[in-house]
Design a protein that fits this description.
about 700 residues; seven-stranded mixed sheet; 32 helices; elongated
Length: about 700
Amino acid sequence: MQRPYTIALVGNPNSGKSSLFNVLTGLNQKVGNFPGVTVDKKTGVSNISESLSANIIDLPGTYSLYPKSADEQVTYEVLLNQKNADRPDLIIVIADAANLKRNLLFCTQIMDLKIPVVITLTMMDIAKQKGITIDTQELQRLMGVPVIPVNPRRNKGIANLKKAIGDIYQTNLPARADFIDLPALTGEWLQEVRQLCELDSNYAALHVACNYTELRYINAANRIRIAALLGESGFHKSKVQAGEIMQRYKKIDAIIAQCVVTESPMKKMVISEQIDRVLLHPLWGNVILLVVLFLLFQSIFWLAHYPMDWVEQGFALAGEGLNNIMQPGLFRDLLVNGLLAGVSGIAVFVPQIMILFGLITILEDSGYMARISFLTDRIMRSAGLNGRSVMPLISGMACAVPAIMAARTIQNRKERLITIMVTPLMSCSARLPVYTMLIALVIPNRVFLGLFNLQGLVLMGLYLLGFFMALVVARVMSFMIKTKERTFFLMELPVYRAPRWKNVGITMIEKGKIFIRDVGKVIIVLSLILWGLAAFGPPSQMRAVEEKYTELLRQHPEQHTEIEHKHATAKLEHSFAGIMGHGIEPLIRPLGYDWKIGIALITSFAAREVFVGTMATLYSVGDTEAGKQTLQDKMQAAKREDGTPVYTLAAGLSLLIFYVFAMQCMSTLAIVKRETRSWKYPVIQFVYMFGIAYLSALFVFQVFR
């Protein structure tokens, strides 16, 4: 089978690479992992022409071919290893036209690998605002590769880019000369390394010489020979790398002098810089950040209200319809009160998940997310971290698993470890269904001054509580973990741009599909298992319950409805699930929880959002009028043996606090083990988070009871 034509997208961070990837691939995307590592691998299919359909790989952003992080190491491995399965047939280098000199350094390094290259110039409008004019035809002539201006956000230049790709695909291009004379810089040994390792280019040979001890695809015999060659020649890695960079910049300066015109030697202040005077102000910047977060959490309730109602009503009608057309029995109970109840309990929150991801994408696309890192750098330093830890923490609002993987970009081992240990304290999207269900249950839906929704304020408070607890724990860990390494936080702030609404829509749809697909599998399996545990129990106990309530019905037929309700509750209590719940009840009773909540705490360790599906199943088992009451109605009506409500304000707040802090996710523990390569850290993480959750929930319940 012929290998599909593969195109890699490479470029500096914030150069527009992801936007171009989304334009080229649309919805034909998937996310996996590069072999052997936990780095995300975004791939997609693009129809370049009628005769060419290409695989597109979005490689992690990097500033040069000298890697400093795990993400950059992946890009390095894909491009340098000629036997790598993902090695591209063509490379699209995305270059920021407003910072052309720095971007061309990376371009020339890629070109010297002797893989066909197309340079795409993005941010042309920003360059124009800065008074920079680029003669793209002259730049193309001097660079010796196609140079295509594109604007992925407005779909401009994409047709020209596809034409350039098609032309390269159909033409056998002659090998390009090296951008700089590498053998003159290094000596004769470079050619011998190239021949020894059967490499395509002198530049690949230079990188093998610099990193042969770390490159897995270099065999032991070749490593010994390379070491001998370098020893004989007096090779000095840093000196050669510095000489290479200086030669490249010397030639790049000459190219820029011929094809780039700047209107004034004084750099023009663009709109982004004017906005930053306000948004990055030490006082007003933080005030505006709090306002943005407030509006984000208010919007989650406000925008999702109607679609959530529609989903809930749809499942209610489906349950009622199945109840009417199916004969009473075990199969109907399994389908309606097991499967449908469990799935409906989580599906109703999909609109909120999609809205959360959509709003986060808008913040990222607009350039404001990077400013959040800058603003919070001082707070991070007070906790023993720096602004580089902010992005994993913010990503933790979506999901802790990729957020923990994102910590690989932190070079300082201590800061990376602390970031991994505290990231699960950030409230992820899996907690959102639990939060919104409990908030709607125990917090009044009141609006103050026509703007401030009490439920939205509580939701925002929960997210902020997790963030500040993460800072506290990070500070404690910074005292406990000793290191002499020092790091400095440097980042490039992208310009402000209008969000690309198509990209926002794609992200919302994809995240909704992923949530339904990944969580749905867990929910369906656990709902069926839980239904079985809740429907069956020890035969002797279940038989005693049946005899008791059959006799009661015979004696008091006029109390049929009340007795049937008590009968269903008694069956559930004596089922296998009920026995589990009662088993841990002594531990959770001081927190204000009953045995049903105990069952949900156990099952939700698989995934936090399973709590909602579990409650939906538990409150539906034995329900003969499925579909006529929502889960919220059933939980509000729930009573203890003494007749008091189960879900009081104190119990609800206690449960909310427990889920803010508790480690209720097996996937997170698994990825922590994988990233730290030890079970020690996941165990410490689980214990300290459970301890904080239990004590905090106990305190809240005692205060509000």
